[in-house]
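Look over this record as teaching material.
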Amino acid sequence: LARPNPKVMNDDTTPDPSTESEASGRAQSARPRRILVVDDEPAARVLANRVLSEAGFEVTTVQSGFECLERFRKEPHGFDLVLLDLSMPFMDGEETFRRLRGINPNVVALLSTGFLAPAQERIERMLAGGLAGSIRKPHRPDELLARIHAILKDIKFSQAGCAASDLANSI
């Protein structure tokens, strides 16, 4: 039986303060990647939490767009990726994404939905608005991890490219 990761956070827990000093003592680049999981389905949150935590990510889960925005406002640059469900009551993934972009225009979000074909127009709008991609539910753990790693790798390279371009332009 695997020991629970003390750095995993969700809507019911907070990190153990004794692990914080250890984490802050490490170099910034060595910190675990942080993912905010937004899904109204408890089973989807539990599965994503388990898969991502076991892969070494620090995970925070919330059950609605409203909770997502509340949590994101506290740390608008604190998450490397937001895994966002499209179909949620009250505030769907599209509206949540639009509001996330209002808080931090550089937010990286991966849309998770079981309705790719019927939602294609909405997904295209979101992609045009900066969405990093979409993945169809149900997804296998390896598919989810591969997609997240690819997005984070692309982001890292594009940021490195921007930094190199900025450096070249300043010379």
